[in-house]
Amino acid sequence: MSVYEFAKGLIIEAGNNVKKIMKEDINIETKSNPNDLVTNVDKATEAYIVENVNKTYPNHSIIGEEGHGHDITNVEGITWVVDPIDGTLNFVHQQENFAISIGIFQDGQPYAGFVYDVMNDVLYHAKRGEGAFENEQPLPQIEATQLHRSIIGINPNWLTKPKLGEMFKPIVESARSSRAYGSAALEIVAVATGKLAAYMTPRLQPWDFAGGVIILNEVNGKASNLKGGDLSIYQANSVVIANPSLHEELMQQHFSKHQSTINLLHERLNN
Amino acid sequence: MSVYEFAKGLIIEAGNNVKKIMKEDINIETKSNPNDLVTNVDKATEAYIVENVNKTYPNHSIIGEEGHGHDITNVEGITWVVDPIDGTLNFVHQQENFAISIGIFQDGQPYAGFVYDVMNDVLYHAKRGEGAFENEQPLPQIEATQLHRSIIGINPNWLTKPKLGEMFKPIVESARSSRAYGSAALEIVAVATGKLAAYMTPRLQPWDFAGGVIILNEVNGKASNLKGGDLSIYQANSVVIANPSLHEELMQQHFSKHQSTINLLHERLNN
């Protein structure tokens, strides 16, 4: 069995476990930030994935939201980047609209990406160079759009910040409309399936985007930080994701005019 | 058959027709505002509902988004308030996340509400005094929440407006998180099912909220305009919808401080 097939089975099993635990009580632990809830389900799901990867592939490295491998910086070999529950607030408040996300990298290069929309039982997946799939349905290449004819994904919260608000406000005003779903992984696959034309946010951790971006790449989507640079799986990033022509429009007409804001943002990202 | 049972069958049939038409080509007509797309599906769906209501209940009045009964102000008898496709942009760009909405009023009082999430095949419905249902599952009464522990529904676009932005910004900052789904009817039923704790917007037409609010009332949700007054089905309204304690918090801590902004908004609403 290839690592790809193994991961596909594992993420679905992990999702089935989540559904099973959801029928029991959900214990919620509050981290320092009230927006950063963590449940026993996050921990149990990450532990389940880590345990199974370790057992089958003892040489693979794992970076996970709930604490695994945060000191890893060595790109050699195979690295799994795992978000056990992306969209934790949705999980806690809605019991849906969350995903398990896994990105697998070989010597620092994308190998395969998985985003499992657990409650809808939809697995988005891609192996580099072999196209992307929604369950067993191949996803078409995404279409070029212009901002004024695009629905974009952006959280209202960013518009309340003084400098970031100044940067994002003209984008929201120029877009046809905006949406906020509360799960970065699902928002990235929404771009990959053409349901959103773009998704942007000033701060994402690698586990939030690793799986989704590998899927996105296979349908000709473009992902970068707000400076246009590559996304790193070893640190937090600013993120803009779109079809290539909209990505270029956003970079040239908007983000390039806010270099000092973005520089300041990047200085603070990993502190 | 009661009007309630008749409407329940009719809205599902209308949804089946929408799915049938979606398999053919969707012709898109652009209204004056590019954000206000209208499709032949909107028109065909409203016509289908109007035709069937007229045939069975020739004495009933109908107010519909696509042009029916906009001059009606007489509350006597039975009035249907119909949105054939709520979330037209989602319909056009996503082919999902839209709803058919019907509110039925008897002598100006709520009689029954229906919101049909077509692509997920979920019908939210309520007859006044008899509780609300998600398909055949009764919905529980919604729980009280405080803003800082609430996920609220609000479109990012409102935060880009000078006066409205000033009013909404502290609400978004105080909330646990914000979402924007792009269909008022689905956002109102998200409050009724407890998936959002509140939904607010400066401008909604009666057909956007009529069905959803009748459902919401049955689970103890509160709906008003931003001044705290009743929503009218004969004109555009500002809208805030929440569980009663959060509604009170929003009115007292936020909207009451912006009376002049809200007065100005209301003056412009129906022009």
**At CATH's second level, what is the architecture of the largest domain in chain A?**
2-Layer Sandwich
* Arithmetic mean of pLDDT of chain A: 93
Low-confidence stretches of chain A: 29-36
CA gyration radius of chain A, whole angstroms = 18 Å
Corresponding CATH superfamily of the largest domain in chain A: Fructose-1,6-Bisphosphatase, subunit A, domain 1
The assembly state of the depicted protein chains is homodimer
Give the class of chain A from helix and strand content and strand pairing.
Answer: alpha+beta
CATH topology-level fold name of the largest domain in chain A: Fructose-1,6-Bisphosphatase, Chain A, domain 1
Strand order of the largest sheet of chain A: 3-4-5-6-7-8-9
| Cα shape of chain A | globular
Q: Whole-Å distance between the termini of chain A?
A: 40 Å
Number of strands of chain A: 14
The major β-sheet of chain A equals: 7 strands, mixed
CATH class membership of the largest domain in chain A? Alpha Beta
Most residues in contact, chain pair and counts:
A-B, 30 and 30 residues
Keywords (chains A, B): Hydrolase, Magnesium, Metal-binding
Protein name (chains A, B): Inositol monophosphatase family protein
